[in-house]
DNA sequence: ATGAAAGCGCTAACAA
DNA sequence: TTGTTAGCGCTTTCAT
């Protein structure tokens, strides 16, 4: 049923090559010939078979983006930016999610979930450097996020320590001195939460403000209910912070919900700063102050890095590319105007 | 560099066909032969080239999902469900967004954005039935959402009129009689907002409650700020509803933010019901009562319909498949427990 | 049970 | 400027 180049060629009474030339806008075709072929194309409703083209050229025009969870607005917004950045280069994006599970991340990184891609952008949570060792390197990989891996793959991130320090500095500037960090992870040292905790510690130390352990609060996950549970646990244990710096906006939002339930007023009783700048943070009853990573820049850097590997300019790889961030100050630290 | 069947065949000293048989688990292969070939496969690190396989079989194993906006959590959550549903059948999902723009939707529906797909799930906003006429039918299409099209494509939806009626009935049951509808569209009769408006009207009529025009509020888009603007405009014009039924949760959340700013208490002064049941609605200062469409069912129905078209069982098409919904009652109508 | 060979639709040398 | 042909890697008759 589908119309192929051969059919068009037969119809126009020319060779396959000529039709191919027209389809690909090869310059050296006489206008008359071009018109004749085009007519046949239109009459037959010919559309090139991209699978065949891809087999021939060894490229598919598809890159994959694998994030932990699309339900996390940060990743949804990031995915939007990646789709746009890819579209600028006429690439489409295959989306996958790993649920933040290591075995899923390994599968994705080794291309077992989607094996028709030119490149992969992976935002890992639990993946270990060793998981990347066994990787066959035919598909270029770019890593996203906070984790540092000593591997020959480019890595896109913001300066997490500096960002966390900016957040804590802002809270100190508002007169807060008992600033809880919501987002510690007990299981491993270099998990995503780590660098932000380092920033929290460094900034407090620089200001000469104590950083007692009971203000470092572990969370079980990255979602609103994890933040709510952590906040409730903290308050139940009798600790009373005057500010909270959360690993991400979702955790901050969960924490704010609990503060609200307990009758604590944000920011007067407890100020809150999040991380990610998701749209949701702008429209709560109390809008959320947050660290805003430049998601479009992250997307552009990731796609750019991938395309560079694809064009294979003797890419060294292993670079860390840094995107900007800024602190967006809203009601959860400033109060209502 | 990549290893092909031929390489493996040479290594194992057998024919290509035999290797292919092993790779595809063809039953009639002697164990000895299978072991020998497998050894060569492992040694060479052979991985099948899916592009070639696809060219041969005419299938790619990829379906596309095109939604208006991934930044809308409803669509992000739906996308998650579709990816999972597709994965169950070993399909991967190419994600695209249309920004709700008709020309983008037309492009996507005609396969111009991604032409290597076996099927397409499209959630249209502005697309018109006529846009689907010129479609070459080689790629099966399933439509999602409220719009009804008289076309030979399956359509997945919930009963929007019944859902809207349930929402309004709930508000009436809470003693509300001036229920504003936030989400009318002025531009066209059969836009997405229409059926829910019909439900609003029907339920009010059934209860003998007046439905004055000034309670039907147009919105400019589908996002939080559109809801905020609409709510502010309504209040500024002096209209004072005792409840709001919003086209979707984002609009409801924007409206609640404005009510909060104006010192109106939800639900005591104004009760609010949304539509979509996005996770965000559960964690605001006032949790949101909402109509919850069964997203997993929608995803399963859509993928199922596509696969049925693919296996080409003389599919008639043009059916409307209906998923369930339920009303989730929360603080924005019940108050705080 | 295994092998030989054709061909999916396309692009790119090379030839004319 | 246009045509001929090989071949991308795989599956699949058809032989053996």
Automatic annotation (TrEMBL), chains A, B:
Q: Which PROSITE patterns did the record assign?
A: HTH_LACI_1, HTH_LACI_2
Keyword Zinc on this protein? no
Per UniProt, residues of the HTH lacI-type domain are 3-57
Q: Which InterPro entries match?
A: HTH_LacI, LacI/GalR-like_sensor, Lambda_DNA-bd_dom_sf, Peripla_BP_I
Going by the UniProt record, its keywords in alphabetical order are: DNA-binding, Transcription, Transcription regulation
Any matching Pfam family:
LacI
Q: Does the keyword Zinc apply?
A: no
Q: Which CDD domains match?
A: HTH_LacI (cd01392), PBP1_LacI_sugar_binding-like (cd06267)
Instruction: Name the chain's protein.
Output: LacI family transcriptional regulator
What taxonomic classification does the UniProt entry list for its organism?
A: Bacteria, Bacillati, Actinomycetota, Actinomycetes, Kitasatosporales
């Amino acid at each position: 049923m589908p119309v192929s180049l051969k059919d068009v060629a037969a119809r126009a009474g020319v060779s396959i090559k000529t039709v191919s030339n027209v389809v690909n806008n090869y310059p050296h075709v006489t206008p008359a010939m071009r018109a004749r072929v085009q007519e046949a194309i239109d009459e037959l409703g010919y559309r090139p078979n991209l699978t065949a083209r891809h087999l021939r050229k060894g490229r598919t025009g598809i890159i994959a983006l694998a994030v932990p969870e699309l339900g996390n607005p940060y990743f949804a917004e990031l995915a939007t930016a990646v789709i746009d950045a890819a579209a600028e280069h006429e690439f489409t994006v295959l989306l996958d999610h790993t649920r933040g599970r290591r075995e899923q991340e390994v599968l994705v990184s080794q291309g077992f979930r989607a094996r028709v891609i030119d490149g992969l952008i992976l935002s890992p949570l639990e993946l270990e450097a060793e998981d990347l060792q066994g990787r066959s390197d035919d598909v270029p990989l770019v890593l996203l996020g906070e984790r540092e891996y000593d591997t020959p793959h480019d890595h896109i991130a913001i300066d997490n320590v500096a960002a966390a320090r900016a957040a804590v500095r802002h809270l100190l500037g508002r007169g807060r001195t008992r600033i809880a960090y919501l987002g510690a992870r007990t299981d491993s040292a270099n998990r995503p939460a780590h660098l932000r905790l380092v920033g929290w510690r460094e900034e407090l130390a620089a200001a000469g403000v104590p950083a007692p352990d009971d203000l470092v609060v572990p969370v079980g996950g990255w979602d609103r209910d994890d933040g709510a549970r952590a906040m409730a646990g903290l308050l139940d244990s009798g600790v009373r912070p005057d500010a909270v710096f959360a690993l991400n906006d979702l955790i901050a939002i969960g924490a704010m919900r609990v503060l609200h339930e307990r009758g604590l007023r944000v920011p007067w009783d407890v100020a809150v700063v999040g991380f990610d700048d998701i749209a949701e943070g702008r429209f709560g009853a109390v809008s959320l102050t947050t660290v805003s990573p430049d998601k479009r820049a992250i997307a552009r850097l990731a796609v750019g890095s991938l395309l560079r590997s694809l064009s294979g300019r003797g890419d060294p790889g292993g670079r860390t590319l840094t995107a900007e961030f800024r602190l967006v100050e809203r009601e959860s630290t400033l109060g209502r105007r």
